[in-house]
């Protein structure tokens, strides 16, 4: 790239970017050209993406990004809020090249590194594909009211609707909810070996009835539970104003279930048998967001 053009692109503000774009397409460019650029511009978090001019901007400054990673970002943004399967990714990013899954994973990892904190918006749906979460997404009210679940916001314990208090004597913990005692013990052992405190529950009712000083770092929640599902429990938490990160685990998940969970704010949706690394990475992500005093400790895991 011409250094003078790069310098122009680093001016702050999209207005300056429009000026730079006008210079690049020529002095004969029209207002229609500029409006076209603004129309195609996609925004998320601190970033603006201009596909035609292949620019990724953060606070008005151009961010270096590889060609494949840029194409991947555009593909995810154009289908924001829904699952993008691996075939769709191949057709968008490598239309005439045969690539294996490891190449896709490498580009996803590269893209997440470039985006920094916003990289967490790219969610992995194991065995299916990827989803770009919409940070402005407002979940629809739950459609189903199950009689065995709380129907009044006041029935949720107050500790669940608060935030972790750094001065609390209680150590931050991960709540694990699964009706299979064997899986429950296995997950709790893994979590404790990684340095986290784990509290286990055989049902969401048992979790709600427990007496805690603080909400958990996150809830590792089986998507399929007797009597009611984890997704319905997630709906209830959201409608009650209890914004606790949830990591779903399931042995019988479908695409619609995975997408619904992620769009409603789930940190991750993992399929059983759960890979230890995937679970611990998801818990670490939730810990960094939920418990500021423990950021350095958990990021080192």
TrEMBL record:
Q: Which residues form the Response regulatory domain?
A: 173-287
Q: Which residues carry this modification: 4-aspartylphosphate?
A: 222
Going by the UniProt record, its keywords in alphabetical order are:
DNA-binding, Phosphoprotein
Q: Which Pfam families does the entry mention?
A: Response_reg, Trans_reg_C
Q: Which InterPro entries match?
A: CheY-like_superfamily, OmpR/PhoB-type_DNA-bd, Sig_transdc_resp-reg_C-effctor, Sig_transdc_resp-reg_receiver, WalR-like, WH-like_DNA-bd_sf
Instruction: Name a GO molecular-function annotation.
Output: phosphorelay response regulator activity
- DNA-binding positions are 39-134
Superkingdom in the source lineage: Bacteria
Q: Protein name, please?
A: Response regulator
Q: Which Gene3D superfamilies is this protein grouped with?
A: 3.40.50.2300, Winged helix-like DNA-binding domain superfamily/Winged helix DNA-binding domain
